[in-house]
Design goal:
The protein starts with a strand and ends in a 7-residue tail after the last helix. Strand 7 and strand 8 form a beta hairpin. The strands form three sheets. The protein has a five-stranded antiparallel beta sheet. The chain has a two-stranded antiparallel sheet with strand order 1-2. Strands 4-9 form a two-stranded antiparallel ribbon. It is globular, with a radius of gyration of 16 Å. It is of the alpha+beta class and 145 residues long.
């Protein structure tokens, strides 16, 4: 739980099931698939903030760093809850952290850093103020999971 303006605010949680297509020969989630689930959770979280990725926008947010630690096996049809938080808003990048739970137990933890980029020049640029403000309001201090 997070404290915002002296109010208890629950973290954003995205619930989904592990799809068969996302499993490997061992029947467990393929490691690359976890990043698609993180991205789905991120997009839904941003939607709640009024931020939508627009493929026609002059800016975009490519991933510049990803990391994931698996804590337990996740298999086809398992229900998972992915908690999302904005851990840091920089000048031109945002660090999202993810905590995945399976039956209430830690199953994976991840980090995704996105950079704000000018689509034409392919160079990093400052995050537009309107987006920065929304992300900053949603940011939570370390250790608030």
């Amino acid at each position: 739980m997070l404290w915002k303006n002296n109010q208890m605010t629950p973290p954003f949680v995205f619930q989904t099931r592990i799809r068969f297509i996302d499993t490997d020969a061992s029947g467990r989630i393929h490691y690359t698939a976890m990043f698609r689930y993180f991205e789905s959770a991120e997009i839904e979280f941003l939607r709640t903030l009024g931020i939508n990725y627009d493929p026609k926008s002059p800016i975009n947010f490519p991933r510049v760093h990803v990391d994931c630690d698996f804590k337990m096996a996740m298999e086809h049809d398992d229900v998972i809850d992915i908690h999302v938080r904005v851990a840091h808003v920089g000048n031109s990048s945002v660090r999202f952290e993810f905590k995945t739970l399976k039956t209430g137990q830690p199953a994976a933890a991840g980090i995704v850093v996105v950079a704000c980029m000018d689509r034409n020049t392919q160079r990093s640029i400052p995050i537009p103020e309107e987006i920065r403000h929304k992300l900053a309001l949603a940011a939570s201090p370390a250790g608030t999971w």
